[in-house]
Amino acid sequence: QVQLVDSGGGLVQAGGSLRLSCSASGRTFIAYVMGWFRQAPGKQRELVAAITSGGSTNYADSVKGRFTISRDNAKNMVYLQMNSLKSEDTAVYYCAAYRGYGLGRKGSDYDYWGQGTQVTVSG
Question: According to the model, what pLDDT value does residue 1 have?
Answer without folding.
Answer: 84
